[in-house]
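User: I'm putting together a teaching handout on how sequence relates to shape, and I'd like one worked example. Could you take diguanylate cyclase from Sphingobium indicum, show the sequence you're using, and then write out its predicted structure as tokens right after it?

Assistant: Happy to. First the sequence, then the structure tokens directly below it.
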Amino acid sequence: MQTSLQHPSSRLAPLALGCAYFLMAALALASSRFEGGLAFIWGANALLMAYLLTSRAGAWPCALIVCGVASALSTALWGMGTLAAVPMAVINLLEAVIVALICRRFAPGGKFAGSMQRLFVFILALCGPANLIAGLAAATVASALTTVPFASSLLQWYTGHVLGGLTCTPILMMLMRGELRRWFGQTPPRGKWEALGLLLLFALATAFVFYAARYPLLFALLLPMVAIVFRLGNLGAAASVMILAMIGGMATMTGHGPLYMIPGTLGERMQFFQLFLAFSFLLSMPIAAELNSRRRLFQMLQESEARYRAIAENSGDVVLNISVGGVIEYASPAAAEQIGCAPELLIGQDAANLVDPADRDQVIATLDRALDQPGEVQTVEFRPFISAQGSEWCEMVARAVVDERGLPTGVVSTIRDMSRHKARQRALQQVAALDSLTGADTRRAFLEKLEEEMLRVRHGARACLLLIDIDHFKAVNDCYGHGAGDRVLAGFVERLRPGLRGGDSIGRLGGEEFAILLSGTDVVRASMICERLREMVTAHPVQIDSGEVIPVTFSAGLVGLGSQSDAQAVLEAADKALYNAKHSGRNCLRLAA
């Protein structure tokens, strides 16, 4: 929410801002021009900077105009006169604009009370370019129109504007952002009474230090101020500084308090008081920022914990928290159903005990990778050692949990039953590996089996490859149609299967070309098997849908595995033998050279 001071739709906002600026400037000039030059205390620019940092850029022109007029009037009436009115107004506006532009560029958002980075940028902008540039210009004007030297004028400007800006700008920004209104709306009565009591005690302690103490006890106010910050946060810091400014400032200006013990002029004492005030506030601001950060972090952790518990306790997957050493620290209720063990009994057990010994090394390596690469998710499939539902396969998804330094403190993992998925995967693989028309292996599946068989042959096994081509198949398609041709292909494989042994494989390489992998046999035995297959096919012609019977024969080329270097060489040798069979009258077998 925004106050009327900064609300872009409020017509009174520029007028209210100008009046407030004029009152603050006039009060500072009337009460703190101790040496006849520049004011030693200046908080008016803090008001303008707070407005610029909390409003849209479109509202800046009106704000700068009214504050420029207010600055010129206050300087003409209570400052260095009409000659200095316009130059000093321009210089005051220049300081505020420089700070606002730098903060908007390097620290967008402008909420200094909750961010150390934004507060640091604000301090650098105010103490650096803004007041170095504006201070040099103001000292030039003051030294030309008054008897105060240039160096003294520069020191008066710099200390007054820097200390006033550091102290007042963050406080005014909090008020403009409506934080006080939100605090009143969100804080229960007990909290409000606690805040009032703490601030009253701090006011009494400040009055004692500045009016009654016989010794300089400024340091004694820091402890209650820090306590207020811990209890009330940013607004507590702002309220305590305002109390300190009112009581301590009045005491110092009227000749009371520990600062009056310092030898020097009243202006020097007020500068020292502003320095103490600024440092007190800057001491409390980092504490408030850190507390805000921790409160937000704690709230985020609570929300994250609530989400995590809701998901973990109602999910069908098993959720485990595993320590760096691989020990289970938490197990979700789903463990009872999926693993067959009560969650509380799993706590303290080694997570590897849930995995089949054959897969443990792989799972442990996955958990180690999750710890070594905290930002990445690791996945592994494994067979469980025990399972309540007889799960054959599980999938683990693991990710490291890190601390505030980014170092892993453990692993959060989910375990899901993958048995059905694996079964579907195997079924799909089987479907993809089979020719839909004949039921024989597809070319790809058969070639994979050929590669595997050749590997076994290299280790001493025996095997042969039989390449088959149906004789005159094109004539069947031309005479009877492709439907009859498909029936012949399917019937051809049906007639071959009874003659194959359990370890043999038949594949369709394309069209009417087939291949048979005969495991554990030599060329002589393979030739006998081929002749038996040829007899079985010839003895049982294929009947098509029209009722006609089509006799089927085939030509074959046979090669023994072992001498060839790869599957392609084996196929080429068998194909040459098949070519010889076709040119030898068909319906016969030829051996590879």
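A couple of points you could highlight for students: Residues 185-313 form one domain. The radius of gyration is 45 Å.
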